[in-house]
Design brief:
It is built from 3 helices and no strands. By secondary structure, the protein is mainly α. Helix 2 packs antiparallel against helix 3.
């Protein structure tokens, strides 16, 4: 066995996930995607509102909403982390 093959063998990583962990991960992923889409929507609509002086106030509020929602992104990730920590660990027995 060559040194390259030996290094490849020792650097392999095996992760074990149970069904509950995958379900939780997927749910938080969907929530995160919906949040990101809404952030983009608020900023896009806010930008369009800035083309019209009569909608400037609404545009400003949409930017504030989008900015506040950007703070939700790390909260979603942190919530997922704590939720996954509460789940029982996957066993190595198959």
């Amino acid at each position: 066995m060559s040194r390259k093959e030996s290094c490849a063998k020792t650097s392999d990583l095996t992760l074990h996930f149970n069904h509950d962990m995958l379900v939780v991960h997927r749910r938080y992923e969907v929530i995160s995607i919906i949040n990101d889409v809404l952030i983009g929507l608020w900023f896009l609509l806010g930008s369009i509102c800035f083309f019209y002086s009569s909608l400037m106030m609404i545009g400003t509020w949409l930017f504030v909403i989008g900015s506040a929602q950007m703070l939700i992104r790390p909260v979603i990730r942190l919530s997922r982390h704590f939720h996954l920590k509460r789940l029982p660990q996957a066993s190595d027995d198959f």
